[in-house]
Amino acid sequence: MSKHLLDNLGVSAFCESMAMMVQSGIRTDEAVGLLAESAAGEKEGPLSRGLAVMKEKLELGESLSAAMRETGCFPDYALSMVEAGESSGRLEDILFRLSRYYADQKTIAEKLKSAVTYPAAMLVLIIAVLAAMLVMVLPAFTGVYDKLTGSLGASAYAYVRWAYAFCWIALAVMVLLAALLVIGLLLWRSKGRGLVEKALRRFPTAASILNGMGMFRFTSALSTFLASGEMQDEAVANSLPMADCPPVEEKLRRCVERMEEGHSIAQAAYDESLFEPVHGRMPLAGERSGNLEAVLERLTGLLEEDCGNKVDRLVGVVDPLLSGILMVTVGLSLLSVMLPLIGMMNAVG
User: Fold this and answer.
1) How far is CA 214 from CA 134, 197, 239, 303, in A?
2) Is the predicted pLDDT of residue 344 greater than 70, yes or no?
3) For the chain, which terminal residue's Cβ has fewer other Cβ atoms within 10 angstroms, N or C?
4) Residue 86 is assigned to a structural domain of this protein
5) What are 271-319's pLDDT values in tens digits?
6) Are 50 and 112 in a shared domain?
7) Is 41 buried (19+), middle (13-18) or exposed (0-12) by CB count in 10 A?
């Protein structure tokens, strides 16, 4: 059994390949066999090992979902959806939906990665520049002014001390931010993700992005479960854990309570303001027209696009802010050490 889960791109590619072959009339065991043969010449990885296990299990008469589960390299959500697709006879549609879902997850993950990578690079650059100022530039000016005597030299030292103070304070702040970023990333990849999210929720923009991602995951899961033929209450119950976002899950629990009173998911979502006002009436319109699945799929795309736009706006604010801090700190420091030099030139002239 594989010890590593496939990444989002790997799951998306597998589901899309399987969906196209099933659509062409190829049996699942033959489809997996073809994929296993094509992966045989490639570098061994979780997918190639998983395909070999799946091929063996399918030849023994097991279902596709059971064979996928045996590999240990597919996420639980994908396994549940494939199993639901097999039981409802809509495997092809479910595989296509899973492919889109994990492709969207990959897109959002890449945006979040870029949102962290560029500011991290800027922090490293700022720390390097400030360290160079403290180690090389400012000591050079200090060495010149140390040779001066009289009141002119005394006034020069005041400006240089200001320059050192500017650089040390800015360097301390940047190092602290860099340390917090590293600690946050380590916690995010471990069991401390909840602590990081709790801290990020103190900032309205970050909280909005996290909530938007939770709604995207829930809506995508809900549309897929409904497409597999599940009843609304079961689909909502199965999709709720996919949100992986406490504020969103709290709203969803209230929606479940309303559904237990006899309301539909669309009406419950509208009453609890589950979606933002611009999207709030879409599920109601879809339910009344009998196209709830299609509307939810469209809404999933809008939520994914909205999350991407929010991340881009956040990056658009953070990057100029860090650049401004660098320019202001270096500029003030250079000005502080240049003022005595200007004063000397005027005195000599």
Assistant:
1) 45, 12, 11, 10
2) no
3) C
4) no
5) 888 888 778 788 888 888 888 888 888 888 888 888 888 888 877 777 7
6) no
7) exposed
| Range of the structural domain that residue 23 is part of | 8-74
Alpha helices by DSSP H, listed for the chain, are 8-23, 28-40, 46-59, 64-71, 76-88, 91-132, 138-146, 151-188, 193-200, 204-227, 232-243, 246-260, 265-271, 277-280, 282-289, 292-348
User: Is residue 305 located within the same domain as residue 236?
Assistant: yes
Residue 257 to residue 314: CA distance in whole angstroms = 35
For the cut 80, the answer to whether the pLDDT of residue 213 exceeds it is: yes
User: 125 with 19, same domain?
Assistant: no
Domain count, the chain: 2
In angstroms, the CA 347 to CA 130 distance is 31
CA-based nearest residue to 325, from 203, 206, 183, 173: 173
Same structural domain for residues 69 and 113? no
If asked whether residues 265 and 304 sit together in one domain, one would say yes
Is residue 83 included in any domain, yes or no?
Answer: no
Assigned domain for 285 exists = yes
Residues 117 and 67 in one domain: no
Nearest CA-CA partner of 101 in 4, 208, 290, 239: 239
Residue 283 lies in a domain: yes
Cβ atoms of 140 and 160 within 8 Å: the answer is no
Token pair belonging to 211? 């909530």
Cβ proximity of 243 and 252 under 8 Å: yes
pTM across the whole model: 0.74
Looking at the structure, tell me whether residues 283 and 203 fall in a common domain: yes
Nearest to 287 by CA among 241, 223, 240: 223
Long-range contacts of the stretch 174-182 (C-beta < 8 A, 24+)? 174/123, 174/126, 174/127, 174/130, 174/325, 175/127, 177/123, 178/120, 178/123, 178/124, 178/127, 181/116, 181/119, 181/120, 181/123
Residues 168 and 231 occupy one common structural domain: yes
Per-residue confidence at 151, pLDDT binned at 50, 70, 90?
A: very low
